[in-house]
Design the sequence.
């Protein structure tokens, strides 16, 4: 494991505030907001600042929401605001293409992340290969990772390493994990791959900070976290909380605490109407392990069919519904309505 | 350990929403607010609902804030709203007296808690003895418990058991603990006393849920939690989150999840302007291990003396400042100002 001269294990904190946070404000952050936060994070020594539409490069659309700025505009503004930190981008193959990746690299993106459903790492092969050929830093991330067992996750991560990924890891997209789940999965991945391992948490069960600490203790070397937890639903791991907690647990992040608190305060004032909290819908979707993007359709359809949305979430969880299976929401709601009648 | 017929370890969830939450709204909850939430918690099967001024019986005053209702009024309203749940009260000797305890019992309080600084359990002796003689359920709680080592806490808890306490435990008043700290302390207490052990968490480091799980795993049998985390500063352990998490970890609470979510939603709508979040001041006071009641005077004095309030918190933590030592804030701020000049 990478060590500082202090002998403490070194972690890379990866900050997707300006990408994941976009989910919480319908992708409308403007130039001054991006510039202000990116500058503050850079001043604090945050190693990687990720920016973009919540769903990544190329995703701005009527279907998932149009961003206020184009990818080109966001990357230009943030690159200028990061004299020291690396700039990160995220892409889901299908939403974005090789052309989007090439333009992100032209704009000075240092860290390029490709995401895929936890059992579909093969969808990253072409793009990871392309990035490897260009010599870029390319990371492969598995979404909704609680839906696969530790062995399967390790196998999918190994495959992404073979495709050319320079780091691999998992998203807890539903915020479903408890610390022992994270320990088990990160351990399996760390034992299987030879590149650094990434953990990205969500707070639906109030465990984002504890899960991130568990990941680091199990050998993850890249920890994702957002200022004030700014992110979809119940939010992400809270950056300015997890950094001093990790330091207290014996890890080194290289981040200046007071400058980080200043960045978080700025984020609180300028990026969000209010920090994320755990409401009952976020909690239930986390318990059920359902894709957080299902929230709005579940609430709409449950109301229309006169069924309890919490029952719909738990049933979708039992059926292992994945993103894209919005049709299943209607099926489940109709069945619950019939069962009741 | 107490077991249900399921064989799962049984926990008693103790809900101080209507007492600790009072700190977040200057003690102004009215009759309809108390009645509504208490009824909903009772319907969910929450075993104990605690009510009162944030600082407990007899504390309503100009110095710490006058409550909208008298102790008598609060206890009358909540008792009527709890056909099934026990009613709890809290008292800090000094603020409240034996006369307050007697009146609370006359109003039908079932669980009476006495709090004392973590090294001053002897202050509970007279009142615990008085309650024991009346045959009441009496609990002894150590505040600011991170300021004493596990052995000392166990000794103070044993003393309270000898005074007559039917349960004993610790408050993480500053929200300073990480899970291993809780494991170590609860284990020491459980190994020393023969009555049930209580844990009361705060969320300053984002660890309230994880710490409460650690406490239960170490053998605590009473876990405190508040709807939406409603409580002082960064808030308490979030009730509707910790209950299903504990159930998933193998514990039994006897609480109905949907009714609990309904109660939490009601609390969110009717008790608080917004749920607690972790702001930078709460985070720093948690890291420093400083009494959360110092927040306002620290901010005021730091501004007046032109020093960084974060430095003041960390220095107060180094000096092990305790509640009542408000004079120390001025001393520290002046010293920091001089050192800078």
Sequence:
């Amino acid at each position: 494991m990478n060590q500082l001269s202090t002998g403490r294990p070194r972690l890379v904190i990866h900050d997707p505030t300006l990408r994941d946070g976009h989910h919480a404000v319908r992708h409308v952050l403007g130039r001054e907001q991006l510039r202000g936060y990116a500058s503050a994070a850079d001043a604090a020594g945050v190693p990687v600042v990720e920016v973009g539409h919540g769903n990544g490069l190329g995703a701005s659309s009527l279907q998932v929401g149009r961003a206020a700025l184009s990818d080109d505009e966001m990357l230009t503004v943030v690159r200028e605001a990061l004299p020291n930190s690396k700039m990160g981008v995220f892409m889901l193959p299908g939403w974005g293409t090789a052309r989007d990746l090439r333009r992100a690299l032209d704009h000075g993106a240092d860290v390029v992340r490709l995401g895929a459903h936890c059992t579909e790492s093969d969808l990253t092969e072409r793009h990871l290969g392309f990035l490897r050929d260009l010599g870029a830093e390319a990371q492969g991330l598995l979404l909704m990772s609680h839906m696969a067992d530790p062995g399967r996750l390790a196998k999918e991560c190994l495959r992404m390493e073979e495709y050319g990924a320079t780091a691999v890891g998992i998203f807890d997209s539903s915020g479903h994990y408890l610390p022992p789940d994270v320990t088990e999965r990160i351990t399996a991945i760390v034992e299987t791959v030879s590149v650094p391992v990434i953990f990205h948490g969500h707070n639906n069960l109030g465990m984002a900070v504890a899960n991130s600490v568990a990941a680091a203790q199990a050998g993850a070397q890249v920890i994702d976290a957002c200022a004030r937890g700014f992110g979809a639903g119940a939010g992400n791991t809270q950056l300015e909380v997890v950094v001093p907690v990790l330091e207290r647990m014996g890890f080194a992040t290289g981040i200046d605490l007071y400058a980080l608190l200043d960045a978080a305060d700025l984020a609180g004032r300028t990026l969000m109407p209010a920090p994320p909290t755990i409401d009952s819908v976020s909690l239930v979707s986390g318990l059920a392990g359902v894709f957080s993007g299902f929230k709005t359709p579940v609430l709409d359809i449950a109301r229309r069919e006169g069924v309890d949305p919490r029952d719909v979430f738990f049933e979708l969880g039992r059926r292992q519904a994945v993103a894209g299976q919005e049709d299943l929401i209607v099926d489940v709601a109709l069945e619950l309505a019939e069962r009741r009648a």
